[in-house]
Structures are given as C-alpha cells and as structure tokens.
Write a structure and sequence with these properties.
single chain, 470 residues, alpha+beta, Chloramphenicol Acetyltransferase, 2 domains, 8-stranded mixed β-sheet, 7-stranded mixed β-sheet, globular
Length: 470
C-alpha cells in the first residue's frame, strides 16, 4: 500500500495495492461490455467510527483474491475490452466532516448530496488510462460515526458480485474465512457455444430481450438519461414492514385459493408495486404495460456458470398485459404472472441469449446492443431490480453493521429497486422508485400513501420520501 502525496485540509488520499500483480489480462465478457464503463455507487452508514488504517490493511489482503479491482481497463485489438491485473491500485480517500451524522433512513434518505461521500472516477476516461476501477471514500462525522462510500465500474461485476466482494472484505477484516471467487470469464463464451447458429439471425430467445440500436437511437437514450440526472427524475423511497408484507402475501394467496399455484412474498410485493405504478401511469386501457424482471442467471444454468463466478451474470424477462388487465386482475393473478415471468429463465434461453450477444460482438455490433427493457423504460416498461437477498446489512468491519444503506439517484425513470431492511427491521423491504417529475407531483397527494400501503395496519404506513436526481 502506498499513500499519495496529496493531502488537503481534513482529507487524505491513498492508493491501495495488493502488493502483488498477477499480470493476467482478463477479457471482459459480452455481459460485462453491455454496461460500458459506467460506475455504480454504494454508501453504508455506521453509528460507530471505522478505523481507516485497519480498513486499508484488510483491503490490501482482500484485493489479492480480486485482482481485477486493482487493475486497469485496456482495449483489445478486436475492439473488445480486458482488465490488465497490474495492481495499479484502488483509490482510498479518508476525510473528516464538520457535521454530525444525520439520522438517515426511509424517512430521510441520503440521496440528496450523496456525492460528497463518494470519490468519483470519470467513466469516459477509463480505457487505456490510469483510472481506478474501484474507489473508496471513508468520511468520519463530527461526534462519531462513519460513512463508507464506494464506486465500482459496472463492467467488473453485477450487484451480487459487488456485494460478495464487500462481504469478503468485511470477513477478511474480522479474520473470518470466505469463498474465493472465480474470475474465469471465458465461461460466458462457453455458455453460448453450444447454442444453435440460428442465433445469428436474432430470431431466437437470445435476441428477444435485446435491440441492436439504429442510427442515433442509443444517443437519444443517453440524452434522455442525462436529462433525468439533471432533475428530470425523482427517487421516491418508502418502507414496507414485515407485517405489511405478510398481509400482502396472504391476500395474493387468497386470490389463488383452489389452484396449485404458489407465490412468494417478493412476487406479491412486485405485483402490488406494478398495480400501484400502473394506476399512477394511468395509460389507456389498450396500452401494453411491461414489467422488466432483472435476474441473476447463475442458478438457471447449472454448472455452466459456477455460483462463485465473479462478473456480470444478469438477464431479464418482460411479462406484459394491457393497462386494463393490470387494473382489473386481482393481486394473486398478477403475482402468478410475475412468477411465470421469472420461470422463463431456462438454461436453454440463457445459452441462446449468450450466443446472440457473442455473435453481435463477433460482428462488431455489440456497442449498438441495448436491453429492450432499458430502451422502453421511458415508455412501456417498469424495471424491477430485487436486491432483497443481498447482504447490505451484514457488512461489518468490527464496529457493527450499518444502520442505513443508500445509492445515488437513478436517472432512468420507472426503475424500482427493492432492498432489505436493517437487522432491527428484519423481514421488511425498502423500495426506491425512480419516477418522471410529472408523475411525482401527483404522488404528493396524500391518498397515494394509502394506495402504496393499503396492506398496512392503521397508522403504521411509512411516508413517501422524495429525492431528485442531480
């Protein structure tokens, strides 16, 4: 580990290295490259003050099992991307804040002003540059407590990989064992190798959830997203308690009484959110409403992709129905449709999808490929990213677990993140919904709290909290 010479006021900057470079050049998979070079953020809020020096020491040891994070991104001769595991290091900033720790939570999120607790890297200045792929900012608050702000280049891994690294770091810090990750990204190419050559036509399942964008189409999407980041999109956060969720699931199962169908708590919550947001959108009866269900495909493909695979392994399905059906069908029927949507993630479909993406890469078109779900996010599709089983509230660096977790506002509208709640609220869900500003105005009418929390006991509903992007 080396400390940089820059030090200003109450801020110190370090470059944390593993102390050993494998020299491996790990080629990014087609799923990695779909995310380009954007960074994703995480912030964890602790009541007790974390030890920066000890965190840097444990990070050194952890990076030896995650060499891509201390490497640098390079362009391949064929236009692909790789990470050179040269141990150039991770940026680690330690700062002092002149204000006490706010009482963050679902009633007071940290989204507004979160950037002050992050050390950003420029996503357009990554390839063939000395730009870190992972950054840490540790901010100590006046009177005690610390905020651990993190950014990771999305091409390195999906949400499951992100959190498996953080859990590994916390275990390393406390002297506990953890499973070592697999960095063999060649398994993704192998996944699609046995699929039919017909995927080159884009006519099979591999092409059903992706669009090869035409001239200006991707640029237009990026432009709309940028407008969202400058205040066009607001994130609405609320908490659903365990008791509320149990009532919701009971209602869904009652709708399915006499059938052999079963739905989970998450299916029922997702169905409820889809119905409420459908009412908010208030589109004509014949309009098609689609729900983008983001899913980790490791468990769908057997041994082809190991459980400890570290990288991007995310797909999506898009069940749909008319706006009239979404309004009229009971909760249980909607939840069953959602469960059927997840069930579309078969091994055959994932193999065909991987083969399609590999064919587009080999044809030089992968940069033009986007998920249809993302392209339709401004119009017909609501995207659900369910993180409720990820260990956000198990990241313990010896001073206890975080009391709150947060992330930067999402500039893409109609995107829903479902997160777990802290240990003292075990079994609940915190829901973050990115909405166009025009629809947010309607949500400020008090009746909408009742719609979101129709299954809550009287007086127990959490409010809706608003935080604009930008």
């Amino acid at each position: 580990m080396t400390a940089s010479a820059t030090e200003s006021g109450a801020k110190r900057s370090f470059t944390v290295c593993a102390g050993e470079a494998t020299g491996d050049r790990i080629r990014l998979s087609v799923y990695d490259m779909l995310f380009s070079t954007v960074y994703t953020t995480r912030a964890f809020f602790y009541r007790e003050t974390l030890d920066g020096e000890a965190l840097r020491a444990s990070l050194v040891r952890t990076l030896r099992n995650f060499p891509v994070l201390s490497g640098r991104m390079k362009k391949d001769p064929d236009g692909g991307l790789s990470v050179l595991c040269d141990d150039s290091g991770v940026r680690f900033v330690e700062a002092q804040a002149p204000v006490p720790m706010p009482d963050y939570g679902p009633r007071h999120t940290a989204k507004k002003g979160l950037d002050r607790y992050l050390s950003h890297a420029m996503p357009f200045w990554v390839v063939d540059r000395d730009t870190p792929l992972f950054t840490v900012k540790l901010t100590h608050m006046k009177g005690g407590g610390s905020i651990l702000g993190l950014t990771m280049n999305h091409a390195m891994g999906d949400g499951s990989s992100y959190m498996s690294f953080l859990e590994a770091w916390s275990h390393e810090h406390r002297g506990l064992g953890y499973a070592k990750p697999s960095h063999d990204r060649g398994v993704i190419d192998a996944l699609g190798a046995s699929a039919s050559d017909d995927t080159h036509t884009g006519g099979l399942t591999g092409g059903a959830h992706f669009t090869v964008t035409g001239r200006g189409q991707k640029t237009a999407f990026i432009g709309r997203a940028l407008r969202g980041s400058f205040g066009g999109v607001t994130t609405v956060t609320t908490r659903f308690t365990a008791a509320e969720l149990a009532a919701m699931k009971d209602a869904a199962m009652a709708d399915l009484a006499g059938t052999d169908r079963w739905v989970s708590t998450n299916d029922a919550l997702t169905a409820h959110l889809w119905k409420v947001l459908g009412a908010l959108r208030d589109r004509p009866d014949s309009s098609v409403e689609r729900l983008g269900l983001i899913a980790d495909f490791r468990s769908f493909v057997g041994a082809a992709v190991p459980d400890d695979y570290w990288g991007n392994a995310v797909t999506n399905t898009r069940p749909g129905m008319t706006a009239a059906e979404l309004r009229s069908r009971p909760l249980g029927e909607i939840a069953a449709a959602i469960r059927a949507g997840y069930a579309e993630n078969t091994e055959e479909r994932i193999r065909e999808e991987a083969a399609f993406l590999c064919a587009e890469r080999d044809a030089g078109r992968l940069k033009r490929v986007m998920t249809t779900m993302a392209l339709d996010s401004f119009d017909t599709t609501i995207a659900i990213n369910n993180w409720s089983k990820l260990p956000f509230y198990r990241i313990d660096f010896g001073q206890g677990t975080p009391f709150w977790y947060d992330f930067s506002p999402t500039p893409i509208p109609w995107t829903v993140h479902i997160a777990p709640t802290p240990a003292d609220q075990n079994g609940g869900r915190d829901v973050h919904i990115a909405l166009p500003r025009t629809h947010v105005r309607a949500l400020k009418e008090p009746s909408w709290v009742g719609r979101f929390h129709r299954y809550a006991d009287s007086g127990q509903a959490f409010p809706l909290t608003f935080a604009a992007a930008g």
